[in-house]
Amino acid sequence: MFVGFILCAVGVEDPRLQLLVFAGEDLRTVDLPPVGTLTIGRGDECAVRIDDPSVSRRHAVLHRGPQLTIEDLGSVNGTLVRDRASSQAAADTLNVRQLLGRKAELAVGDTLLFGTAIVVVRHAPMPDVADLAGSGPGFVVRDTKMQAVFDQAARAAPTPINVLLLGETGVGKEVLARAIHARSGRAGGPFIGVNCAALSDTLLESELFGHEKGAFTGAVQARPGLFEAAAGGTVFLDEIGELALSTQAKLLRVLEERTIVRLGSNRPRPIDVRLLTATNRDLEAASRAGQFRSDLYFRINSLALTIPPLRERSTEIEPLARLFLMAACRLIERAEVPALSAAALQQLSDYSWPGNVRELRNAMERAVVLCPLATILPEHLPPVIAGYVGAQPVLAAATRPAPRPVDLPSELQSMERLRILEALSATAGNQSEAARRLGISRGTLIARIAEYGIPRPRRHGAESDG
Predict the structure, then answer these.
(1) pLDDT tens digits for range 305-316
(2) Which domain holds residue 333?
(3) Among 108, 161, 218, 379, which has the minimal tally of Cβ within 10 Å of its Cβ?
(4) What SS3 class is residue 293?
């Protein structure tokens, strides 16, 4: 979703709120409704499902109304709330509240801890738009290949030609499409996009062309499609290579006749849109193999722009990382942007970035959450980037321990240590029961006890559970 010359609008946020959910190495966002409740837990019925053994089946409920609150539902591991990181975060004690069957008010930037899962409340970001004019804050274009793409996009933007954007997943095809729209004569009209790989064939045709009432089960009223809704603007079809052949034929007819026919209707309706498309597939090879219509390929390929992967434009890694840190801090209303240590920068430079700029952005968002202190260290980066795999940060205490294993951020270690102590105390030193409460194996618990220098629990001269 991001390219090297983006972010002239960095830091702009939507008044809506989101949850940023970290579960293991997975990251996803959940939009919060203006009013209502969201159940969080491991169960299939939960609105925010976190598939992690340390999370209870129905762990907590988030209440959205005049005030945002979180209510723990008596979960095994409880719910921890870490207040928004600020300049006071450099203190040795972090402001952490533990909830067991209780409620607490939340603010933007607060971090919720459900077992080993981390959830952050933030503003919903606005889409970033690249400035093809070559000016504006947050502008990054250093690589010569990116400069060439930039120049061609700037020349193509004011014209009506169809542009095909090529490149690996995460390089920033949609951002470039938005930039072309913003520099075009249709900038005053809507920009509406759809991911062709995310919908079934029937749903995608309804999204593109619209439908009449009763056209299919669930069509309770007539609805215009994207080509009608984007009148005077731009339609962006991402992952167009995933279109079924039947849908390809209908799309070709739309482009040739400049009309659409809604599902369940036989009346053609004129359209006035520009089409931009994107794919990470080799459409030329797919057309030769009969998997993509060659006539449609030539129609959408008036100009093809290939965005190089991030690993081929290493000079842009550091400035993009700093911009993403700024954006992440603004979304959670964090006053001070943490610095990147030399060791963390080296890890970013050495990594191959298979997820491209999107992966870099996610890594910086994660670092802002895990590091409330002044400097981001390698252990605040995802394990695969920092050079270790399998580390699971667990937050659970409010005092800093002396031991410092390299695979856990220090502020997370301190909370985990206190949580282990609390579990051992609650179970009278029974390690098996304490491990069950923590949602980890007994072997993992014993390893953590050794890491943090916690005396092994003993009862009557023997280990508590054998």
Answers:
(1) 999 999 999 999
(2) 312-459
(3) 218
(4) coil
